Amino acid sequence: MGIQDRAEATGKNIAGKAQEAAGKATGDTSQEMKGKAKQGEAKAEHAKEDVKDKAKNAID
To answer: Is 13 left (phi over 0), alpha (psi -120 to 50) or beta?
Structure first.
């Protein structure tokens, strides 16, 4: 399931960047901050997957 989780996190990151850019373009700081938050969530999800991968590799 790691690949699917990584793909979802990447999608969330892209959506966050788009939302942040839209917020900047329209001057809507709320949307800009929500976009940054999505990017932060995606980064955390990627970090979680990295830990899972390292643990799996250590076991193998």
So the answer is: alpha
Q: Which residues of the chain have pLDDT under 50?
A: none
Report the pLDDT value the prediction gives residue 1, as an integer from 0 to 100: 56
**What secondary structure does DSSP assign to 5-31, as a single string?**
HHHHHHHHHHHHHHHHHHHHHHT-HHH
- What tokens appear for 52 in the block? 């899972």
Q: Is the CB of residue 45 less than 8 Å from the CB of residue 1?
A: no
Between CA 42 and CA 57 the distance in angstroms is 22
Angle between helices 29-59 and 2-26 (to 10 degrees): 160
The owner of tokens 């901050």 is 33
Amino acid symbol at 53: D
Tokens read off for 26: 């329209």
